[in-house]
Amino acid sequence: MKEQHFSLPQEHSDYEELVYLRKILLLRLIHVLFAFGVSCLILFVETVYEFTESRIYLTVGFKVSLIPIAIILFKVDRVGGSLVLSLIFGILFTLGLGAMLGSLFSVCWKPVTAFVLLSAFVTVHFALFLYAAFEKDVYNVTKGLLWVLELSIVNFIIQIFYFRAERFYLLIIAFMFGMFGAFSVYHAKMISQGKFRVIPRERYVLGALSVYIDFTLIKLFIIQKCCKKRKEDEEQSTLIKE
């Protein structure tokens, strides 16, 4: 594969660049609003109906359904993308993979299993990311990660506050997002200097998926801890009343 550099064409006018940026910003706003809407819907269901552990798996199913939307739309500025197609794909993912994950986690979701799975996915993610960095192929990897973060950051924060996470977890999350933000600023500067080349699609899709799964597992871990604490608080308040 020939080495390509990410740069705008020489004849690219200021007006065309403005239209291009507006298109990207609009699509990213749609992603955030969609993620926000899905989160509100899930939280509404969990509030109206009795909260059970099985609904955590339903939540994971919805979050996983956002993965194909990220895959299709995070590279829209290069190949174009269909929002309708990605939404249909997302619904199919919710029905299929969401059900599979629900049955899987209901059988094997124990603290030790959670720790092993979380460690494995985090390791895979950083291995892929470091491999890309050493190859100087970080442009599309980072781009994929940032688009996936845009899809998940809103519902991630909403759910953390909804489940009354402890400050320790919030500090970890803030640090992670801060790290990605700092890297994205540095990376934008490198791209503007044409120092990174475009990489094969498979590698940056894998990187995006791995980090998304990292966040999903971290979310599950936090939710489980918070649910346990909430149940203990309820039991304690019941005992006090008695």
UniProtKB/TrEMBL annotation:
<dbReference type="InterPro" id="IPR006214">
    <property type="entry name" value="Bax_inhibitor_1-related"/>
</dbReference>
<dbReference type="GO" id="GO:0016020">
    <property type="term" value="C:membrane"/>
</dbReference>
<protein>
    <submittedName>
        <fullName>Uncharacterized protein</fullName>
    </submittedName>
</protein>
<feature type="transmembrane region" description="Helical">
    <location>
        <begin position="112"/>
        <end position="132"/>
    </location>
</feature>
<feature type="transmembrane region" description="Helical">
    <location>
        <begin position="83"/>
        <end position="106"/>
    </location>
</feature>
<keyword id="KW-0812">Transmembrane</keyword>
<keyword id="KW-0472">Membrane</keyword>
<feature type="transmembrane region" description="Helical">
    <location>
        <begin position="168"/>
        <end position="188"/>
    </location>
</feature>
<feature type="transmembrane region" description="Helical">
    <location>
        <begin position="144"/>
        <end position="162"/>
    </location>
</feature>
<feature type="transmembrane region" description="Helical">
    <location>
        <begin position="25"/>
        <end position="44"/>
    </location>
</feature>
<feature type="transmembrane region" description="Helical">
    <location>
        <begin position="204"/>
        <end position="223"/>
    </location>
</feature>
<keyword id="KW-1133">Transmembrane helix</keyword>
<dbReference type="Pfam" id="PF01027">
    <property type="entry name" value="Bax1-I"/>
</dbReference>
<feature type="transmembrane region" description="Helical">
    <location>
        <begin position="56"/>
        <end position="76"/>
    </location>
</feature>
